Fold this protein.
Amino acid sequence: MKKILLSLIAACAAVLAAPSYAALNVLACEPEWAALATEIGGDKLKVSSATNALQDPHRIEARPSLIARARNADLLICTGLELEAGWLPILLQQSGNARIVPGQPGYFEAGSYVQRLEVPSHVDRSQGDVHAAGNPHIQQDPRNIAKVADALVKRLSEIDAGNAAYYQSRYKDFSGRWAAAMKKWEQKAAPLNGMPVVDHHKNMSYLLNWLGMREVATLEPKPGVEPSAAHLSELVNQLQRQPAKMVIRAAYQDGRASQWLSEHAHMPAVMAPFTVGGSDAAKDLFSLFDDTVQRLLEAAK
């Protein structure tokens, strides 16, 4: 009995002395940041996304299951720029997690690290859903992904200093592959430069800016206001004077308006995946842009 007791004590001591390898809990507001965190953090992180590619990131309900994930999160990664203004404050309040509130290391706002487009000089309700901080759909430009990755590895290293070398190593590998991929995408997409397009909502601005494409109209008369039959008819008349090559929508948006315009203005309708998971092919950040560029090129033929 004495030998058994001593063995049990030794075993318990060994368990207590062993280092902890519990993964850091990361909650991303959008799928692109979940994918980026996974690229950098690997198996040192337990990552989930509050939204998926078929949901409008402006309009999410803070359900109990999501509140529970926020309560246990060590790091919250969101776009910011008012994209989550309709649901994130409620989520933070209900979770009671002081680690992930703005101003704490556990709160990471991706939009703070990029150059913003379409920052309005003033905002009022008559303009529709205009964001005072600028267009928040920054993930559509891979150059922004690179900037956010650079900031994210530093934040992960701060929160989890014991694994800093691991994060830095994975970031270095990702950064090299990402730079090579961007060069490939830009070369492949060269024929799109200067091409006029219509988009559904002003959520393609960063993509168009990156590729040098030109927005000549939007399906929505104002951001967040769905197009009426009268507005669509006006667009057809406008496009007779100023033609476009395609109409683009995000995967989460209803395709009926873009399909109607496609048929009446005689141009292709393109569904862009918009974020990771937006199409069967867009399984990670790399395939997201592979698929996006390919879809645009096929429509431009």
Summary: Residues 164-188 form the longest helix (25 residues). Residues 1-20 have pLDDT under 50 and may be disordered. The two ends are 82 Å apart (CA to CA).
